[in-house]
Amino acid sequence: xxxxxxxxxxxxxxxxxxxxxxxxxxxxxxxxxxxxxxxxxxxxxxxxxxxxxxxxxxxxxxxxxxxxxxxxxxxxxxxxxxxxxxxxxxxxxxxxxxxxxxxxxxxxxxxxxxxxxxxxxxxxxxxxxxxxxxxxxxxxxxxxxxxxxxxxxxxxxxxxxxxxxxxxxxxxxxxxxxxxxxxxxxxxxxxxxxxxxxxxxxxxxxxxxxxxxxxxxxxxxxxxxxxxxxxxxxxxxxxxxxxxxxxxxxxxxxxxxxxxxxxxxxxxxxxxxxxxxxxxxxxxxxxxxxxxxxxxxxxxxxxxxxxxxxxxxxxxxxxxxxxxxxxxxxxxxxxxxxxxxxxxxxxxxxxxxxxxxxxxxxxxxxxxxxxxxxxxxxxxxxxxxxxxxxxxxxxxxxxxxxxxxxxxxxxxxx
Length: 414
Description:
The chain is mainly alpha-helical and 414 residues long. The chain contains 16 helices and 4 strands. It has helices at 3-32, 47-80, 83-93, 98-131, 139-170, 176-199, 213-224, 261-266, 269-284, 287-309, 313-317, 326-341, 345-367, 371-383, 392-398, 404-412; strands spanning 206-208, 231-235, 246-249, 256-260. Strand 3 and strand 4 (256-260) form a beta hairpin. Helix 3 (83-93) packs across helix 4 and helix 4 runs antiparallel to helix 5 (139-170). It is globular, with a radius of gyration of 24 Å.
């Protein structure tokens, strides 16, 4: 049997088994603490709210694990049955040329797995999120969003993928991987720049924040730290969910503050300003730039590895391809890369948590008080049914943010 396939299968099942073990570990740990609200929150969150958050956490975790394992026999059935090779042969027989053939091949495989994921997406939204009072989306709106997302993927992803296939087809013995990396970096910057102005409004209505105390204090906060922005907008997030959030989007003159309408209703002005100061802190502390550089470096490393594999017959034999091609190489790489790199997830989580601590500290210092940030964290935790007691190993491996109690303790030390 192909050695690469054996190695991939070991890493693939190790990833799934580790994920399931950590999930069950977390579920058991959370349920063990369900009888008593953690001491710090006993006067801030009722036992009923706390137990509801535990039920929500456990149900989402179990469902996510089921969804993950359902894909396993389907993926391996397609691989071992030679489906990818037969599809490749059929599309080549149509005589469209390497670029169009590659696009059709990757689109077909992507559409297949996308269709398999749809029932899980529907269940998550209209059963779990509905059950816990978060979902506000109608089936019609869900379908409209789905159609828009597919259309955007075709209009923006199609040309980018075609360019990648062209570089690989015409420069396979050269520096195609460098050209592709430059292309992906430019596309990433372009999408980040236009997102708040052209892409986000396709899904949500953005309304300039009304004149008043909140708007004035946000601009005052931005001036205080020399943070440039083009506007402050409220977004109709409540049309889809009661979950709340705030974020910055765009680059340069397109950079905007976007507030979920649910957030504006749930937090007081000082708490809201502290949350925004936290988000500004990510920019001031160069966290956004660091994240982009790390992601860019990881992308470059991955493309370098792929450049070493594209000329190896055993690489294609693993997925039963009889003839090498750029689209076959991309499929194999996309389906195997996650399994070979999953053990690096804690490194990304550690860096992200470090950034969150720094942004929290920045918010407390800018506000000259730590209480608004702490109170905002407590309310967001309560309103979003966040897990107050995750297992330490689970949070170490997966959490991009420190637990709320870890963040509060760090703030209280300031």
